[in-house]
Write a structure and sequence with these properties.
about 80 residues, alpha+beta, two-stranded antiparallel ribbon, 2 helices, 2 strands, about 30% helix, elongated
Length: about 80
């Protein structure tokens, strides 16, 4: 066997040794979890806006556009959108 073939075999062995654990199938968690979003049009006629956290770990945004929500999500000034 040539030195090149031996070196190539060694390199493949080392790489596969480090990559193989990452390729294993992940086991699902025992507790299913999901997020829910509800988007509804404002039919109240109220023009006031609110945005921010709500009790119970919820997030509530009322009378906001997507242009309002994106800067809030990334911590940017509203004029950045």
């Amino acid at each position: 066997m040539s030195r090149f073939a031996a070196a190539l075999g060694l390199l493949i062995s080392i790489v596969s040794w480090h990559v193989a654990p990452a390729l294993q199938v992940q086991t699902p968690s025992t507790d299913p979890a999901f997020d829910v979003a509800s988007v509804k049009p404002n039919t109240s006629g109220d023009w006031r806006k609110s945005i921010g956290p709500a009790p119970g770990g919820r997030f509530l945004a009322t009378n906001n556009t997507l242009k309002d929500l994106i800067p809030f999500a990334y911590g940017l000034p509203r004029s950045a959108a």
